[in-house]
Design goal:
The chain is an alpha+beta fold. It has a single domain, classed as 3-Layer(aba) Sandwich (Aminopeptidase). Helix content is 32%, strand content 32%. It has 4 helices and 7 strands; from the N terminus they run βααβββαβαββ. The protein has a 7-stranded mixed β-sheet, with helices on both faces. Strand 3 and strand 4 form a beta hairpin. The protein starts with a strand and ends with a strand. Keywords: Acyltransferase, Transferase. GO terms for molecular function: acyltransferase activity, transferring groups other than amino-acyl groups. It comes from Streptomyces montanus. This is GNAT family N-acetyltransferase.
Length: 149
Amino acid sequence: MTDLLIKRVDGDADLQGLKDWQHVHNVVVPPFHLPLDAVRERAVRNHMEVAYVGDVLVGCSTVRPPEGDEAVVTVIARVLAEHRRKGLGEQLYARGLERARESGAGVIETLVLESNQDGLRFALKHGFVEVERYVLPGLTIPEIALRLS
């Protein structure tokens, strides 16, 4: 497994981290393109990290805090296509899962675009099952919500 350098994105104190997270997000899920201001806002409410191999950006992750009566925590790990199948997603996911459990998760979910077959295979392989499939207004590609079983 390749060693990752993983850094927390710390709001305005880390402009490069914000931009790197934004880049990975926008490449992996282009229908949900986020401007930098939206990334800043997400960094305040979510635990966000960026991952590098050496000085090369390879991925990012998001752990949303517990919500609702079930304390649902969403864990999302994204790896740029050219860096997949090297164990990097495994490392990002394991770290996100640990963070979710530390935050008091009752239920763990993830989100994957239907067009991201690598991401969908990864989620299913790790015990997630589909709970909902929907298309947001103005978009054409379904997003799939999956829950860890």
